[in-house]
Fold:
Amino acid sequence: MIHFFIGLKYTEDPKQLQEDNGKPKAMSEILFQLMMATGVNRLFNKCTIKEFLFRLAICLHKYGVIKNFFTDDKIIEVDYDGTKIEFYLNDLIGHIGFEINDDECPYVARGIWLKNINTFWENAAAGAAISGVPIIAIEHISGSSYHLGVNKPGNPDAETIKLARLFSESAVKSIREEKLKELYKRVKEYSKLLKDYKEFIEEVVPEEFDYESIPLEIRNQFYKKIVGAVDVDDHEYQETINDENSTLARLMYLTWLYANGHVVEYKITREFDRGTAINAEVDRVYSRVGGFDYDDYDGLNNLGIGINLADTFYDYGLDKLAHLLKDENKDYFIKNSNS
Structure:
């Protein structure tokens, strides 16, 4: 599981970035959201800072980030809770050492991020709905219905990438070498721990979910719960029940993860209405190594948008069938699938 947080511990002066009550200042919350949108997990060295700036320029190119920076070092200006906040390069420098989660990788590979840039933007918008940070647009429809990430950046053209590269290279040169050396001393030990964990997790071999080994009688119970009545002569039924890549199979995989303790639920509070909701995360051994892909569950809930594994699990009534997929029944699966 990857846990998200506003991590100030390794910044130069954490107290300077906090309110008197210990809560992170708006500037840190804004940076948190921007890092979510850019797929950058921490700003621990020159390379990660430069990558963040490159991606930031792409995400916010329609807001004139590059033009503003070369005019007065301003990165972005936002209206935060009725107050205008200007985020300058010096504000970013004050945040080097900042992190937003405990993922062992410093950032998502650039190619993957570019390919899924709008998804990252929408996920950050979901974070905005919880925190109230306004950069990534949330359009209210009615009641508790919202369109998230309506101002998503889209795929950049060659000119935008060229300008983003120029911007990141110029901006990172403004950071004094002494600052980077001090940063290295602060994060050296922690960076080694992250590296060691990355090597460990890459060697872990998770249990495999084998859809085809599950007896037909159990698959049918899930089919009834998710799709409807079983008609063995129906072409759609035959196609679905035998397809290990079907929505049925994906929902059974999620149920298997839940049943065997590989999913953790947690409560979140939405800033826009102060309501609470339950979300869930899959053990990162499965999400990083075992092939679990959150995107497979996008829209599989009552709202029909976004990814919330807890909603998916309960909306489909999978909790009522989870006991059928516990590992203690594995021998039963194998015996019956071969009979």
About this structure: The chain is about 45% helix and 15% strand. Strands lie at 4-7, 74-80, 83-88, 99-101, 138-142, 145-148, 263-269, 276-282. The two ends are 38 Å apart (CA to CA). Residues 138-148, 332-339 have pLDDT under 50 and may be disordered.
